[in-house]
Amino acid sequence: MADLSTTYMGVPLKNPLVVAASAISNYVDKVKRCEEFGAGALVIRSLFEEQIQHDDTTMADFLERAANISPEIHSSFYPPIDFGGGREHMMWVEKTRRAVAMPIFASLNAVTPGSWVNYARQLAETGIDGLEINYYYVAADPNVPGSELEKRLVDIVASVKQAVDIPVAVKLSPFYTSIAHLVKQLEAAGADAVVLFNRFLQPTIDIQDQAIVNEMVYSTPQELKLPLRWVALLYGRTNLDLILNTGVHTGADMVKALLAGAKAVQVASALFINGLPYISTMLLDLQNWMGEHGYSSLDEFRGAVSQQSVRDPFGFERAQYMQLLLAQE
Ligand SMILES: Cc1cc2nc3c(=O)[nH]c(=O)nc-3n(C[C@H](O)[C@H](O)[C@H](O)COP(=O)(O)O)c2cc1C
Prior knowledge:
Blueprint: E1 6-8, E2 11-13, E3 17-22, H1 28-36, E4 41-44, E5 47-48, H2 49-54, H3 59-69, H4 86-99, E6 104-109, H5 113-125, E7 130-134, H6 146-163, E8 168-172, H7 179-188, E9 193-196, E10 204-206, E11 211-213, H8 225-234, E12 241-245, H9 251-260, E13 264-267, H10 269-274, H11 278-292, H12 321-327
Parallel strand pairs: 3-4, 3-13, 4-6, 5-6, 6-7, 7-8, 8-9, 9-12, 12-13
Antiparallel strand pairs: 1-2, 10-11
Helix pairs in contact: 5-6, 8-9, 9-11
The structure holds flavin mononucleotide (FMN).
C-alpha cells in the first residue's frame, strides 16, 4: 500500500485530504465521521467577527459600523451564521479538538487589526493544530488601491504570527493582481502556508422580485483549473506550503493537485454532494493511481507537473490560447 502521508505547515497528516472549513464542522459527530472515513485533517468553520460582536452589541448596530470597514460583512458569502458568539465558538472548537485524533485547524475572519490578534490568541488557546486566516475584502471602495488592501492583509498576518505560536495559513481569494508577489510578502510576514483559493458565494438577482438572492451553489470540477494553475506556477518559488482548494471532486483531482505541487488539498463541495463516506472513495482512487504508476509516496511525484518541471514552462502562463482558439470550428 502506498504511503499517503504528508505534512501541512509542519503538522503530520496521514494523507493529503483536508476537509475544508464548512458547515460539516457544525456537528462533532460529522467531524468524527470524517475521521472514520479517513480524512487527514479538518478545518473548523470560520469564526466571523459578526458572531463575536453579537456578544456585546446588536447585530444591526454592528453591521452598520462594519459596513464602513468591510463591505464583505454585509454580503452573505456563506449560509446564515448562527450567532453563537465568540465564547461559544471557542468552547465548540475546544470540544471538537478533543473529540478526534486527526489534526484540527480553526479559521478566523475578523475585521479590525485588534480583533484579528485577540481572537487568533483565543483560538490558539483551544489546542488547535493551526490557524487559517480567512481574509476577504470586496475592493468596492474606489479610494483604496489594491496595494493598500494587500498591505492590510500582510500586516494582519505579521501581527497574528507574533501573537500565536501555532502555524498560520492564509486562505486567499483569487482576486489579486499579482498573486505570486503577494505570496512572497506573506512568506516574509511569517505565514506558513497559503490556501489557493477560497470560493465565495456571489449573490444573484431574482428578476421577479427584483431583489438580491443568495443561494448555495457548490463548486464544479471545472473550477479546479484556476487553483491548479497557481499551485503549478508557485511550486518551487516559495517556501510556504501550497494547499489547493476549490474544485477538488475526485481522487484524480487530488492527483492533479499533487502533480502541480500541492502539499495537501481541501475539499468541501464534493462531500456535500456525495456524502462523507466519499472521503474513502477519493483516498482509494489516489492509492490506486499511485499503485498503477509505481509510486510509493507522495514526494515521488509531487510537483512533477509544476511549471518548473514541465518541458513547456509557458504552458501554464499562455496556456496555448492561439492553438485552442484557432482549433474551434
Ligand atoms: C456550506 C459551506 C460553508 C463554508 N464555510 C466556510 C467558512 O466558514 N470559512 C471559509 O473559509 N470557507 C468556507 N467555505 C468555503 C470552503 O471552505 C471552500 O473554500 C470552498 O467551498 C471551495 O472548496 P470546494 O470546491 O471543495 O467546495 C464554505 C463552503 C461551504 C460549501
